[in-house]
Design brief:
The complex is a heterodimer of chains A (about 290) and B (about 350).
Chain A: H1 2-32, H2 39-56, H3 61-84, H4 92-114, E1 129-132, E2 135-138, H5 139-161, H6 163-173, H7 175-180, H8 185-211, H9 220-231, H10 236-257, H11 261-276
Antiparallel strand pairs in A: 1-2
Helix pairs in contact in A: 1-5, 1-6, 1-8, 1-9, 1-10, 2-3, 2-4, 2-8, 2-9, 3-8, 5-6, 5-8, 6-8, 9-10, 9-11, 10-11
Chain B: H1 10-14, H2 20-39, H3 42-67, H4 75-93, H5 97-116, H6 124-144, H7 146-149, E1 155-156, E2 161-162, E3 165-166, H8 170-191, H9 195-205, H10 207-212, H11 217-243, E4 245-246, H12 253-266, H13 271-294, H14 302-324, H15 328-342
Antiparallel strand pairs in B: 1-4, 2-3
Classes of the chains: A mainly alpha (about 290), B mainly alpha (about 350).
Chain lengths: ~290, ~350
């Protein structure tokens, strides 16, 4: 039983971080029908920028965080404006490929500046283990969980209450109808990309705090695919539930069956789910007409 | 001044090479290919062999992605299947290289069909991610099924021989790989002049319309996966025989991305494009390495950032091509031909 609680806690905290990273995917997909294969690299950049600011330039934590968020916003807008806007109306494969190219470029830039050797992250959240129901879990993981859940809650409010959030959902639903209602689709795209970059860089900070900064962080992008597919590419609650399911699944298989299997099982589940429900558990089915 | 291409016989109209210019270019190309290995040094031959393998793999991927419109991120995984199957068959059953290659290709086709089944219900992004999981699953099996594949250890394959000649020497392998590339080219070019190939193109252009017109989506999508995976498996099997060593690092998701980049930069839905793209993407890192070595003295930083420069240029090239010439090198080649054909009246 203690093992079960331990695994559940680990799974939940990992799942919350996965959900946070998945949120960026869903945001971009929802508003612009683009899937961003560079999401993992956004995470990487967020982690390295705050690492550079705090550990290398000695900026204070709160200021460093604000600066990182600002840089993420700038990055998101730049990517949208320079790379994705010329891709509007191009076939899906071009859009996928352009974000893959972007991923490669961003990873190279990070590598050229900071190298590939993993470095210890100056912890801004203490990592001392905390006992819960007989199981111990790092305090940083708990904080990551709380922050991730809080962020997801905030986004939910943003999408249901704020003007911009509702406009974004309108654009996602039908770009032309949104345009005729006076919504600037271009501005909404810029919003979506900068929000995605911000969530990814916050996710990057949380993960880096737990495992340190290294090029491996970009691999997070790959792990997020089962999450978004499980929940459906266009569903925010789906991203949260998918994240938690995948987090728990990884944790249980790792603990009960053996290490190693937990890397591949999410992808097996992904294929099975796609066979049964091609639009994910919570995704919207699209009716196609010729 | 040419105003168009006119033929008075059906045979001429249906020929693969229809104009004199095309025939002359083909002859020049064939002569260049035949004479090349006699003049080239060992390094250039190695590169030529790598390009040849890449061409076969790119043609295979282009059948699936460029002609049938089914996006696949599983190329690396399917190549791994071909390479390991060929290597294991030669190693454990002592099969001659050609037999193990052929069986490995058929086996890869089978695996391709298996992972192609989700394509019946999935399209676009969702299919891309399903094939990405095929890549992850295959590589996981390869690295964890230690009893058969050797896991993380390299699989050492006996050298391929034919008529007592060792084939994995650069000079000898050149003829093997480029003859197979020639066969792949002829079969693929002709495939799209048959009922099957036209059905593939119809599925790419509009699958629902194709099914309304009587194209059996189930059958043709799986067939496309099979034919494509056959050639992809061939590229993998040839890698195994050429290198004599099979390791999983050669078949990661980066390889899938590299091959997709080849066919996009070369030109989707074009065999010429597969050639151009495979050549370009294989030689680009080599070119950058040489550039790095040449400028090492002026920019000492070059040595440390070279791998990142390669990675960054790779990404940048993809982005720039997609923004400025989405139809790839093939289109640029056509534009160049048109320019000279119509010169000086380019309008």
């Amino acid at each position: 039983m203690p093992l079960f609680i331990q695994l559940t806690l680990t799974g939940l905290t990992n799942g919350a971080i996965l959900a946070l990273a998945a949120l960026g995917f869903v945001l971009i997909y929802k508003s612009s029908d683009v899937i961003n294969f560079a999401q993992g690299e956004f995470l990487l950049i967020g982690a390295y920028v705050i690492f550079g600011l705090v550990a290398q330039f000695g900026v204070a934590w709160p200021l460093g965080m604000i600066l990182t968020v600002l840089i993420a916003v700038a990055l998101g807008i730049a990517v949208e404006r320079l790379v994705l806007r010329p891709m509007i109306g191009e076939p899906i494969i071009s859009v996928i490929m352009v974000t893959i190219g972007l991923a490669s470029l961003l990873k190279a830039i990070v590598g050229a500046i900071w190298g590939t050797i993993p470095q210890a992250f100056p912890a801004f959240i203490p990592s001392a283990p905390v006992k819960i129901l007989g199981a111990s879990v790092g305090e940083d993981r708990l904080w990551a969980f709380v922050i991730a859940i809080a962020m997801l809650g905030l986004f939910n409010i943003f999408f249901t209450r704020s003007r911009e959030g509702i406009a974004m959902r309108a654009v996602a639903d039908d770009q032309q109808a949104a345009l005729s209602m006076g919504i600037s689709v271009k501005r909404i795209f810029a919003w979506a990309w900068s929000i995605a970059a911000v969530t990814a860089s916050l996710g990057g900070m949380l993960v880096a705090n737990i495992v340190g900064v290294s090029g491996e962080l970009a691999g997070f992008g790959l792990r997020v695919f089962p999450v978004v597919i499980l929940g459906g590419l266009d569903s925010i609650p789906g991203a949260i539930i998918g994240g938690i399911i995948i987090g728990l699944l990884e944790s249980y298989t790792g603990g009960y069956i053996g290490e190693g299997l937990n890397q591949v099982l999410p992808f097996v589940v992904l294929i099975v789910i796609l066979m049964v429900r091609p639009y994910g558990l919570f995704g919207q089915e699209i009716i196609e007409r010729v | 001044m040419i105003s168009g291409i006119f033929h008075s016989r059906y045979e001429d109209d249906m020929a693969l090479r229809r104009t004199h210019a095309q025939k002359i270019r083909l002859v020049i190309l064939v002569i260049a290919f035949i004479t090349f290995p006699f003049f080239a040094d060992r390094y250039s031959l190695t590169l030529a062999n790598q390009v040849g393998i890449a061409v076969i793999g790119a043609i295979g991927l282009n059948i699936l992605v460029g002609y049938t419109g089914q996006i696949s991120l599983g190329q690396g995984g399917f190549m791994a299947v071909g390479a390991y199957a060929a290597g294991l068959l030669t190693l454990h059953f002592g099969m001659p290289w050609w037999a193990s290659t052929l069986i490995a290709c058929l086996f890869t086709a089978l695996v391709g069909v298996l992972f192609g089944i989700p394509s019946l219900r999935l399209k676009g992004l969702y299919l891309a991610i399903a094939t990405l999981s095929a890549q992850v699953i295959i590589l996981w099996v390869v690295t964890h099924w230690t009893a058969v594949t050797g896991g993380n250890d390299a699989l050492v394959v006996p050298s391929p021989t034919m008529f007592g000649i060792k084939l994995n020497k650069d000079f000898n392998f050149y003829w093997v790989v480029w003859s197979i590339a020639l066969i792949a080219t002829l079969l693929t070019v002709n495939l799209f002049r048959t009922r099957f190939g036209r059905a593939f193109i119809a599925i790419r252009d509009q699958d629902i319309a194709a099914s309304v017109m009587g194209v059996d989506l189930f059958k043709y999508k799986l067939l496309s996966f099979a034919i494509s995976s056959f050639w992809v498996g061939m590229a993998g099997a040839l890698t195994a025989h050429y290198r004599s060593i099979v390791t999983w690092e050669r078949f990661t998701v980066d390889v899938s991305v590299l091959y997709l980049a080849m066919i996009i930069i070369g030109g989707l839905g074009s065999v010429t494009g597969s050639y151009l793209g495979a050549t370009f993407m294989t030689l680009l890192p080599v070119l950058l390495t040489n550039l790095g070595r040449a400028t090492k003295d002026t920019f000492p930083i070059m040595e440390t950032i070279l791998p990142f420069l390669q990675q960054g240029v790779f990404g940048l090239v993809i982005i720039l091509f997609l923004i400025f010439e989405p139809e790839g090198l093939n289109k640029m080649w056509k534009n160049a031909k048109d320019y000279f054909r119509l010169w000086p009246f380019s309008y």
